[in-house]
Records
---
Amino acid sequence: MNTRRRFLTQLAVGAAGMTMATRSWASVIVPKKKDRLGVALVGLGYYSTDLLAPALQLTTQCRLAGVVSGTPAKLAMWQQRHGLPEANLYNYDNFDTIANNTDIDVVYIVLPPSMHAEYTIRAARAGKHVWCEKPMAPSVKECEAMIKACRDHGVTLAIGYRLHHEPNTQRIMQFRREQKYGPAVRATAEAGYVDPRKDHWKQKKAMGGGVMGDMGVYPLNAIRYGVGLEPIAVTAQASTTRPEIYTEVEETMAFQLEFPGGATAAGEASFGKRMNRLRVGNTQGWYELSPFQNYSGIKGTTSDGVALDAVVPNQQAKQMDDDAAAIMHGTPLLAPGEEGLKDTIVVEAIYRAASSGQKEKVG
């Protein structure tokens, strides 16, 4: 058994212990009298401003309690718009003093991937639960450090895989668990859009850019939860149609996965073309979602005509409510740090395969 698989095994054992231990220390970290957890958003870009902040107005288990930004003007705007107290506004220099703020229970990291590990670890040391946007981090080593820091400081770590909270996706997962259509044989997943930006972190290698550092986790994670197995080998091809923009990282990545037992999958992610579909073929039928990763309107069907058309008023609100409830009640998270680590292990193998032009083992 290699080192990473041994690490995951140890984490599984530790997670089981944490679930039991949560019941004993939850009253210390999160006072029972709290009806909602206070959430501080770290990074006030588009996702925080246009999606998470409005979603927090719809939640029942948590609320917006604070913000962290390196831009004073943004802090002032958020304070005025959301009625936040001065004591709950932080910058990146004084972030660690959040440890003294009992109004904030959870820190939600919404920064470029290259910054996820640093702020997850700092938040854990401050005694705050952590929600971290996907992808978890650019490297396996960073993911492992994030998990360890949260475990060592007795806080939970959830990764922002909102689709794990989406009901149509959950039906797909249920089909897989129950093997309603038999074991998986072949899966395909594609996710992409045309990004017109020319100077963004997604185009900068040092900030965790490249399509596998953003859209790539959608088809990869979907294949994993659609098939229900961990890949053992991968081939991959990176490409760019706009080399004047994507000078450091890939614009598009295609990858092919092999699983134990002979199942295979093909995935693709792109910043240069529109794609949005997941399909899993099994020995006794198939199921698919198209679109499978939109912020709304996810729908699909199965080979025997089952309609997958449940509607969620707000995906981000449901994700945050689910994660807050898990913290308060000491129940397992739907997408803990280990889930992000598993994707990153495969992402590293995809990059190795794209570079070598050869099949690479995963792990």
---
Amino acid sequence: MKRNFFLCLAAPIGFLAFSIGVLAKSPNIEFEEFDLPNGLHVILHRNTDAPVVSSYVLYHVGSKDERPDRTGFAHFFEHLMFEGSTNIERGQIDKLISGAGGNLNASTSFDRTDYYINLPSNELELALWIESERLMHAVVDETGVETQREVVKEERRSRYDNQPYGSLMENMAGAVFAGTPYAWTPIGSAQYIDEATIDEFRDFYKKWYVPNNAILSIAGDIDLVKTKQLVEQYFGQIPRGEDPQRAGIDWDLMAPGTSKLVDEPMTPLPAAVHIWRAPVLTHEDAEAIDLLISILATGKSSRMYRRLVDVERAAVNSAAFTWMQEKAGLVAAYAIGNRGVTIEQLDSLIEEEVEKLIDTGVTDQEFQKALNQKESEIASSVGTMSSRAQSLANNHLWYGDAGRINRELEAYLKVKKEDLQRVAKNYLKKDRRNTLHYPVPEK
């Protein structure tokens, strides 16, 4: 169970016809929230537009919470939690949900692991039973562990080791997040998954899969009183665990840059990647950085794409993105060159476009367009019950405020055009730039 992260990196954002005036028409998402005595935080959003319901369980554990010699555990549990429980036979969770007309999935990031279930609204109790079973009675045994060892290793081989530029995510994290627990990625190391004992897996489950380290968010056609009773029925008796101890991270934005040559036999075209350290997700500059990167290289109308792909014909693709995490962050821009184009040419073109942002900032038209894109993106991000449940939980975890779901656009509207040039000067400095070069191997 894994969402394809790379499909999201360079996805163009459209729908530019919207204006900022649409803000007044955005729905106000009402919700209730409360804590059970065992520490589980619960968020409920009622919407009767369609007879559907979505449950979302967010665990505050990701790859950054792993031991350096046991990477990949958080992602491993994303898979293992579908094995079964004391009261659910192995392999039956998927069948139970599909048989009830629903769907489910899960994902892992540097900072969290999450599970969602979408069902007809009359099947809410099924979702709550399954999630309570996974929280209290998940089976962590040799059979399940060995099965998922092979699944996870095959995922790594097919999606990372045997794909062109498949090492990009790991190389970026290793370069920019060096010296922190973000230096490895959620996929982890097959070696460490192989070396881990059954007791180590059980200890990980006992430490992180506790109600006081989780958020349960439910959105859809629900009766609030009855739903509260069901939540208490299924989750209220689960004992509180010890509060997990987390490693401290000293995030230095001033660290000098590095350079790495990535010589891989499967590289079809030359590629250059420029990466800078950025502030954390909740930093006051986060929205300005997001808008800046959108103007630089998000979509085919962005500066980098027009220059490198359309005008110079030096690249087949060019884009930029941000990874702003709980305790660290980065921004990156990359270009995949045409045949015959050198990596030095790609470096020079990317650098020129970044320097223009630093020297002259952005135009009024570019700034307004970026805001329009962001408005459309935010509106689309809460269009389903599943996305609303997820947004409520994530806003509570990272910002301590689930109600930010209704104010996210406001944070972007507070950004001034001049802020974009300021953050470009502050964070995209050449001496702090990390570079990755993917040359085409000689025949």
